[in-house]
Amino acid sequence: MDIPENLFLAKYSTGHFNVEDIIAYVNEKLAAGFYSDRYIDILDAKPRVWDEVSKLFEILMSEENKDIPSEEKAVWTILKYHIGLIASDKLEPYSQFKKLLEDIQFYDCSKNIKQYYGDSIGIHYLYAMYHDDCATKDEINRMIFKESRKWLDEYSANH
Known about the structure:
Layout: H1 5-13, H2 19-31, H3 37-44, H4 50-63, H5 71-87, H6 93-103, H7 124-130, H8 137-155
Helix pairs in contact: 1-5, 2-3, 3-4, 5-6, 5-8, 7-8
């Protein structure tokens, strides 16, 4: 999986994963030398269906004292992760923002809006810039980078 565990749990919480993702997580943990009978229960689950595997995964997380965040907390974790990467200036902003949108695709960004799509989570300007068809890709990248730094200053400390 090669993502931070808090991001993995956030993606799990927002419905972004399937059974194969949980199996990959368990295999990665086992390969890293971690062991739990619950890992084996997950791998041995028959049939390998979401209801069964996710139930076992949630029991495992509970036993390991790892909280699966609420959908709201999960979305903020995902936002901070991706926007932080954009603001680090190490990745192309446009492509990273696309990944952010993929990771929150099941979240209702129109929920609790004041005026614009995504304004309840502060991504309305980023979203508009991402969809700007009058600017060049370089201009869009610069705008998204700059706005990401503003977003971190304004939103990340409060969530």
